[in-house]
Here is the input.
Amino acid sequence: MIPSRNIHRKAWAKVMLYLFTLLPLYLSCSSGPTNVQKTDQLPLIYPDYIGVTIPAGVAPLDFNVKDAEVVDVTVKGSEGGSLHAQSEWADFDVDEWHALTQQNKGGQLTFTVCIRKDGRWIQYKDFQIAVSPYELEEWGLTYRRIAPGYEVYSHMGLYQRDLSNFDETAIIDNLQIPGQCVNCHMSNRTDPSRFVFHVRGAHGATMIQMDGKREWLKAKNDLLGGSMVYPYWHPSGKYCAFSTNQTRQGFHMVKDERIEVFDLSSDVFVYNPVTHELLTDSLLMTADWSENSPVFSPDGKTLYYMTCKQQEYPAHYKDEKYNLCKIAFNPETGTFGERVDTVFNAVAMGKSLTWPRPSYDGHYILFTLTDYGYFSIWHEESEQWLLDVQTGEAREVKEINSPRADSYHNWNVNSHWIVFTSRRDDGLYSRLYMASVDDKGRFSKPFMLPQRNPQEYYERSLYSYNTPDFAKRKVEFDSHAAAREVMSDRRVETKMK
Here is the structure.
């Protein structure tokens, strides 16, 4: 039976009535600013992205504007293209953002920000963001996320984040291995096919994953006197350097100082994951000095590390001051050179050096200077410094430093980007920041790791970030199987060569 034309007309009339009912609501939500009052002031945005440099294809730099009921933003590229967003915050479409940043690689994006406040529209002075010509060759980041605390491990985990969007997933969370601390993770030149981390606690172990195969090493070797921590891969993937530390902590009773970490002893060695041998040398395991935090040069022929004259702790904790040293390493034989050289004398400056990280192109070593000690995350005075390997000259990187603790940095594989932690946001929580590095070793203004609705995200977050590293691709890790393996206490024995 064929429906009559009258039935068609009635149905069509209902559809049109419904559409006209929705139209005013749609127009009220999507209409642009009218009767705008302009001001010469820049908008107060969170995070402060004004004047930063970003890689093309990074997640949208969503931001909030202070006192805004509605935020309206138009972004125009110096090489063409534009996008528009209107919401409670600057909430950009991911695909449109990617297209605009790719089109304007090496150029600039200009932001026109209007807010509605008390029923009136205000337009602020435009600001710019640069889109770097340097690619970010990595898929994302890995990092530890940890609740503030000291002796109780609480909730923590190793996580990874896709830098092209806001997706975060757990690599392993200590809710799967109750009472354990997961820390000290590292990939080989950002490639997670070689991945390592340490588990501290009653079921302690050092996990090494090579091409998808996991091994859990016995946490402590009696000949070492401590655990295998602070790992760093040899560029060949054949070795991994560690230090072994007898770590202690103490608490301050003065304002703005909370905790101090020091080592009763520490030594440096190299591990061969194929033979399970610990490659040691008397020059790296001395009685009167604490060797710590080893890293390989990009060509694999030099081992850098920190060293400090052993003190009586905790009485003389402020005398714990580290220099940067180096020793030759032969990757063919797995042997060390016959002498140690000082690369940077921080003690002569009355300072202590920590967290040395060579750029993968071999040009620089980025490190942190503090007044004493090496746990810079608890030192507000900690600053980032850059050493030119060829000239031996070092400078404070004022472009990225803040009045609060800046530390825990790593390079991306093409050595044009760094990620680091900073407490500059609120002085309490360490957040992740990224900055670009040009061919002359100059750094751009850092930008906070983007989040969707960042004000809400960071206000609700009870976690600090630390030990970040870039990841060439997503870390493939079976956390459920790994949790069973940790709790089983089946461990691979290591041996001294």
